[in-house]
Amino acid sequence: MELLPRSPAEFGSARYWDRFFRQRGQRPFEWYGAFPELCPVLHKYVRPRDKVLVVGCGNSELSEQMYDVGMCEDIVNIDVSDAVIRQMRERSVGTRPKMSYLLMDMLQMDFPDAHFQVVLDKGTLDALLTDEEEATLAKVDQMFAEISRVLQVGGRYLCVSLAQAHVLKKAVEYFSQEGWVVRVHQVASSGDKQQFVLPVFVYVMTKFRKMPGSAARILEICPEEQDKPMRVESAERLVAAVKDRQHYALLCSQISKTPCREQVSLDLCDKKSGKPRYTLHVVDSPSVKPSRDNHFAIFIIPQGRETEWLFGTEEGRRQLAASAGFGRLLTVALHREQHYEGMASIQAELSGKVMELAPPGLPARQQVPFLSVGGDIGVRVVRHCGSSPLSGEFIVEDVKGEGTCYFRRLIFLQNRNVVQSEARLLAPTAPPGQKKRRKDKKKPSPTELSGAIDKSYLCCEHHKAMVAGLCLLGGPDTLPGELAVLVVGLGGGSLPLFVHDYFSQAHVAVVEIDPSMLEVATRWFGFSQGDRMRVHVSDGLDYVAKLAAEAPAQYDAVMFDVDSKDLTVGMSCPPPAFVEKPFLQKIKTILKPEGVFVLNLVCRDARLKESVLAALRDVFPLLYARRIQGEVNEILFCQPGPAGRHGPAELGVRARALEGALRRPGRPWDSSYALADMLQAVHIL
């Protein structure tokens, strides 16, 4: 039996609907859900004494159920199909005396003006507005005009729809321009009983008298999980908000049926502010053999640790999921602008939403565990918020790392998942003569820490590799003597501070384009200037060019650790201009013949990276590379002459000698500074 129309235009044909309902018989046909799903929304806008008009009623049971539960009895149903009107009259004869069915075209209704308090439309607008042809839009305008005519001021037009973009936009623009209040509700799904993958929406258009002039339009959306509507500023934003919810519904439908081949990422936003509150990643592990208890788990990433390799990269999350032993692991990152009470409140807040992302085959009523590191949500304290014309908005925050360590971080909010600078905080010490209480075993929180920076500790692996590269200076088994070092890019200042403190004869010049970063490094990261440490607030390009012209061959080492502000380029460090061949020639000019140029390269664009390496090879005869495991960073050691070429074994000897010279009695030295290990993976390009 063929019930579908031969063309979309037939949806507006009385002949088509007569044939449709004769062939379908007495079985109700429910467009977009049944009464139980729609009832919570309808109950808000339909009062028992209202006079209700249902346009395009078909043979839906909606009117009958509204009548039978006492929601409303004075209901008039109209349709263009004579066959369905006769069916519906027969169904309600003698049982619903106050409800009527009339054969009538909604484009030309016989009712007087302002006759109804509610007009209800379930799928009729969607059936009429199948395209955006001129004739179709004219019919829709006629439909809206008739609905407006028969509604009283304060009356509601309730339209149940799948909210295709062109349908929603047309309705919103028409009625908002007429001065009506427009609100869109998402209808809660009914699980396995839901007929459509896409969610169902109800447009609520409340009629007001049109005010003269350009009064502000009131547009709102009410997601299914909350009653309080959210105001939006434009019809385009309202359509976009609905589209976001449709995409989410499609995603949930897809991943509930099949495993994810690729990791899926989505943000859950705060209901009040609309800002991201949680970032979720869905990670499936095909290698995990399913059993009743290992289908699905939620992993809460402690605050401040979302940038770590294990949590912040696809490969890391894949490894985390496999080691956790669950077929699907949902990782949850917490955002710094949000407040969280604790693990229990997060679990209560997320329990309903995360189950929408459950894997196929999850047993009914299965308990889904919430996991974390150490069972808590971590600690994050924002110490400072700032902004500069060059770096944009930035923050300084203290976070709890692994174990009992706390760290201070500088984050540029335009790239909030990247730690710009990091330093370890020292634990507070008791004043002289005061003994520590043995009973108090509580570890200090960031609010209790002294704020003092552990200048002996390099948090970044690429900084350790950059320091190891200084073994290329000096003899094979001696510490380099008096050094002149130029560092381009200050950040928090940990790299130049370490070189200054551990190379006691080094004179360090730092070039930083942003004066705000000098203030941040000084106030929050323990940076200070002195006889052997000077900061020049200048563009690195200009500073190096001036040196090349006025004072060549004066530096033993030039170290570049400068980020790019242009996120559209596939290279985030350094900016492309810093690795163009003419500028590289200037770097070579300011280096001493046996000096070394150390570059932190972060490039995801393979072609761009190859062009950078080609330019470096053209300028520097000797080029070493060291990849940082688990990161995109690659440290390049470039020397102006080939005479100092060393194999991996000799580099290891030199690095061990450098480490031995730096490890002096009374000077802190972290066990992770295995400089020889840093250079084991170095290869000559």
TrEMBL record:
MF-aspect GO terms: methyltransferase activity
Transmembrane segments: none
Gene Ontology annotations for the cellular component aspect, listed alphabetically: cytoplasm
UniProt feature, compositional bias: Basic residues: 434-444
Protein name: eEF1A lysine and N-terminal methyltransferase
Region (Disordered): 424-449
Gene3D superfamilies tied to this protein: Vaccinia Virus protein VP39 (3.40.50.150)
Family: Belongs to the methyltransferase superfamily.
Classification via InterPro entries: Lys/N-term_MeTrsfase_sf (IPR051419), Methyltransf_11 (IPR013216), SAM-dependent_MTases_sf (IPR029063)
Keywords per UniProt: Methyltransferase, Multifunctional enzyme, Transferase
Every Methyltransferase type domain range: 53-158
First and last residue of the signal peptide: none
Organismal lineage: Eukaryota, Metazoa, Chordata, Craniata, Vertebrata
GO BP term (any one): methylation
